[in-house]
Design brief:
The structure holds 2 protein chains of 2 kinds. Chain A is of the alpha+beta class. Chain A is built from 2 helices and 6 strands; from the N terminus they run αββββββα. Classes of the chains: A alpha+beta, B alpha/beta. The interface between A and B is medium-sized, with 31 and 29 residues.
Amino acid sequence: MREETIEQAIKDLVERYGEGVRQAREGSQTLVRINEVELYPACRPAVTPMLLAFDSAQPKPLVYVQPGQLLANGRAPRNSSTVLVGGESWMQFSFNIPWAEGDSIIRFVAAARQRFAQDD
Amino acid sequence: MTEIELRVPLGLGETLQDTVYKKSAHEYVAFGLVRHAYLGGRETLLLRRVVPLPDSAYRKTHSHGAMWSGAAMAPVICQAVDENLGIVIFHAHQHEGIPQLSRDDRASADQLLPVFRQRVPTRPHGSIVLSRTNAGGVVLMPGEEQPRTAITVRWYGASISKWGREEPNGARPVHPIFQRQALVFGGPGQDILQHAKVAVVGLGGGGSHVVQQLAHMGIGEIIGVDADRAERTNQHRLIGWDRLWTWVRRRKVDLMRYLVWRIGTGSRFRSIFAKVPDPLAVEALKEADVIVGCLDNLHARLDLQDLAWRFLIPYVDIGVSIRPVEDVQDNGPRVAIGGNIITLIPGGFCLWCCGFLSDEKLAGELNGPNRGYFRGREGEAQVVSLNGLVASQAVSEVLQLLTGFAGTGIRHADVVVDPDGTDQRGFKKLNGTSGTLQEWGASQRSTCTHCSGTLARGAVMWGAAA
């Protein structure tokens, strides 16, 4: 992923989510935290912090939510696990999000939210 | 006057002391580049790099202090800005006891710290003077106007050397229950144990031995981390097992808390019913003086390694592996029993350096592209006596780290396997069939990106998105 793509993605996220977007550098990664992303009303909780990890060596960002996030049926998403990113705990989940450089990052976040609309 | 602690990794302490304790007509200066974290109830400076001021930068002065050209600091400031690090100016007053900044030192700090803060506002900056036994000075934390002046130092080497805020005032009387143990560690050593926090991650066959021994020794607080419940199949190896547990599948943390209470030496047990790296476990581990990992998988070890290096916490890892021998000789052993006790001192070799962790080995624990597909290792052979061997050695390693009973010192020479070699002590291998434990040693790999990437990095610091 090119640096310009990452910069543009951050700009777009700030435009959409305002001051709730925070940024940090962790080695080769640019981490972007969105403080509140609304999932689906039945999810528990229905709002989660979301982490996007951009890496110039990777074709698309990695996405994480707050550990303990449950689907509407009260279960954790299948093949999810807690991992450390930058010394913090985040929930990794398995979901194929079609995305390529040039696509909107807002669409990427929307696609990630979709994972929590589906019960396993 | 809230206390602040400086943690100095193995290697950097030697560089720092060699620079500032140099004897000459003037004092010598080194710049420390730091991150910070809130650990164990106090702000902590994590020393990431030491940059000695080059000889050519000093200017002649009539005082015994040090004067240097402002231009010499430019590379240090640039590095601090690039990597978002705080800057601490170090020098020494070569006496014992609590040192204080001189009037010149103070004037220089008043001038320089605001400049550093202007360049890197989100990190602490300071001026610290070291004596031979204590530290003093000023540290300006982000967002605070009043500098902090109560400074303690934790040096990592053969053991953890702590420099407090007070002059040593003699040993306190040792409680009769620890009198024979204190013959080994001394009164001050016993006092250190009774104020120490040791985290034990994994409370199964190895961890339960460790908890039991730590409690007997009177460790101040044992932080037990495990998300499992005890089952009948654990009975043959779980220390502290009680037949009543068979029917109620109690949490392992509860068994260990009960075990510690029954021993009754005054150790506290804090139950963390969670897995690493769940947030509850991570926050608890950040408070520990030493972490002991008694785990059955590499991914959890990966997390402990990451946390230990980020927050500069020594980590002792144990494991036992029992495998059948394929070509059994007449009357020969039918199993190969291997094990390890790895003592990881921040700044020394890490689990990646010594080959214990690798991308291939980690991938071998997964059934898919990420950790959500973890498959673990079920049903491996376990024997209580063999677990006990490595667990006992792990506890001895903890005692060495806390009390330095087998030697102290922060220099490379203080941690090597033999005086002519370069390998660092701390990688011991068990041969369970012969009953021997051998020090193999290991070296930090200069190309290890995991060491350099995580050492003293602290947690991620969030800023406004650009």
